């Protein structure tokens, strides 16, 4: 066995597996319904309008579009 291979049941593999399981369990219990899409791909219409407004007018002038995008994301199941 070379130095890049770990034997079965080694501490490195065990701790990595348990960390992934803990993270998955925390995410599953923390949300009521899991979003179907990634947040970056959800609500493209409101995201585009929000981004264009911020670029042209600044964030303080675009609270209407920012809130509309947040409401859309919440409807998709994201906690924002």
Can you describe what's shown?
5% of the residues are buried. The protein has helices at 11-30, 44-57, 63-75. Helix 2 runs antiparallel to helix 3. Residues 10-29 have low confidence and may be disordered. The chain has 80 residues and is mainly alpha-helical. The protein is elongated.
Short characterization:
This protein is mostly helical and 80 residues long. The chain is built from 3 helices and no strands.
Global shape: elongated
CATH superfamily of the domain at 33-80: CytochromE C oxidase copper chaperone
How many beta strands in the DSSP annotation? 0
Please, how many helices?
A: 3
CATH hierarchy: architecture of the domain at 33-80:
Orthogonal Bundle
Task: Tell me the fraction of residues in β-strands, as a range.
Answer: under 5%
What structural class do helix, strand and pairing data support?
A: mainly alpha
CATH fold label of the domain at 33-80: Helix Hairpins
Q: What summary fits the major beta sheet?
A: none
Unreliable stretches covering 5 or more consecutive residues: 10-29
Identify the CATH class of the domain at 33-80: Mainly Alpha
Rg calculated over all Cα atoms: 21 Å
- H/E element string? HHH
Summarize model confidence as the mean pLDDT: 75
- The level of helicity is 55-70%
> How far is the first residue's CA from the last residue's CA?
48 Å
